[in-house]
Amino acid sequence: MTPDEVTLRPIGLIRTPFERPEGMPVQPMAARGVRGTIELDPAYVEGLADLDGFSHLTLLYHFHRVGGARLTVVPFLDDRPHGLFATRSPARPNPIGLSTVHLIGISGSTLEIEDVDILDGTPLLDMKPYVAPLDDRPERGSAGTRVASRTSRTPGRTTASARLPAVGSRGLYLTRPW
């Protein structure tokens, strides 16, 4: 198989209070109330028409400060290695991040957002409105709960998700660099 080359160009920058990965919330659910902005390239402002009718956005962005991909990683909530694709590690072959954030408002080419778990200056590749009937999977239940109820294919071991701690009011925070 010969992969085609893909070129992506940022459509803007995501601005947040997090200048370094250490101490940054991990996943938007741990970043409740954290505000940021999107500075959209003015060439794309026309594309914001009607977006203010949505409460949440799904952001696709480039993990611009992550080193190379690693096929085996120790995830932030575990102490043993796992295959990369069984984790949410940012050290991926195509370092693309995905977060759903609360849209507070739009003024010109600036979008005010909340529940942000992204580094300051992160290049925004795309954004889409979050539409619950299309994006939620209620028939599946909570993915973590569902996975936690399974056992691994290795006798005597449960899946990594079964060992995840509950998220308290402090949330989850990155304690080591990527």
Task: Write the topology of this structure.
Blueprint: E1 12-15, E2 35-40, E3 56-62, E4 72-73, E5 82-83, E6 96-107, E7 110-114, E8 122-129, H1 132-135, H2 143-148
Antiparallel strand pairs: 1-2, 1-8, 2-7, 3-6, 3-8, 4-5, 6-7
What is this entry, summarized?
Helices cover 6% and strands 26% of the residues.
Mind explaining what this structure looks like?
With 178 residues, the chain is mainly beta. The protein has one domain (12-163): Elongation Factor Tu (Ef-tu), domain 3, CATH 2.40.30. It has helices spanning 132-135, 143-148; strands at residues 12-15, 35-40, 56-62, 72-73, 82-83, 96-107, 110-114, 122-129. Strand 6 (96-107) and strand 7 form a beta hairpin. The chain is globular.
